[in-house]
Amino acid sequence: MDALSAAVSPSAQAQLRTFIEKFGPEDQRLIRAVRSAVRRHLPTANELVWDNYNFFVIGYSPTERPTDSILSIAARANGVGLCFINGASLPDPKGLLLGSGRQTRFIRLESAARLSHPEVEALIKAAIAKATQPFPRHGRGKLIVRSIAAKQRPRKRPLKRSQSASALHGKARSPWKRSASSTARKRSPAASANRSSKRR
Fold first, then answer.
1. Which of 45, 60, 68, 78 has a C-alpha 20 to 30 A away from that of 143?
2. Residue 135, by phi and psi: left (phi above 0), alpha (psi -120 to 50) or beta?
3. What does 106-155 look like in DSSP terms, one character per residue?
4. Exposed (0-12), middle (13-18) or buried (19+): which is 26, by Cβ within 10 Å?
């Protein structure tokens, strides 16, 4: 679908809420927290939203053009990540950036708190400095829904076999809560760069 002209309309906000609510409760909280954290770094950026087949994506651009985006939040059922659109050219002395493409890199996010780590903040500042277009000094960026895929991968994490069995016997337990015996098995969400923004 075409970008919405009324970018800050209740309709755009309602659509964004609907997209996020497709995820499980824990991932919803994470996506919202990450969005708030990125907004603090880029308050004047436009948020360009794609609800695609593979990923739900929020790109951050100084203009309404996807090609000017410097960062994006990419989420799917197995995790949330922050993508650096031109990450391959950013200084990364700590080796935080993942991916091997010619342009985009990303970091996995298990908590929005990671965005406040000095080495991650340095990457964000470097990405802003390399932006092809300057970000406005004042004002608030728009929220623009770019596209919605008719068919999408499930956004919720699948239940483990043991959890499915418990649910069948009326003993369902939240898939996001871990027992004391399982806290050592840390789940690592993965995300990769959304390529759709480069094609639009």
1. 78
2. beta
3. EEEES-GGGGGSHHHHHHHHHHHHT-SSPPPSSS---EEEEEE-SS----
4. middle
Q: What is the pTM of this model?
A: 0.76
Q: 52: which 2 tokens? A: 């695609």
pLDDT at 162 (0 to 100)? 56
From residue 191, give the alpha-carbon distance in Å to each of 82, 122, 158, 180: 8, 21, 16, 27
For the chain, the average pLDDT equals 83
pLDDT in tens, 122-152: 999 999 999 999 999 999 999 999 999 999 9
Three-state secondary-structure class, residue 196:
helix
Tokens of 156: 């919720």
Q: What whole-number distance in Å separates Cα of residue 44 and Cα of residue 138?
A: 7
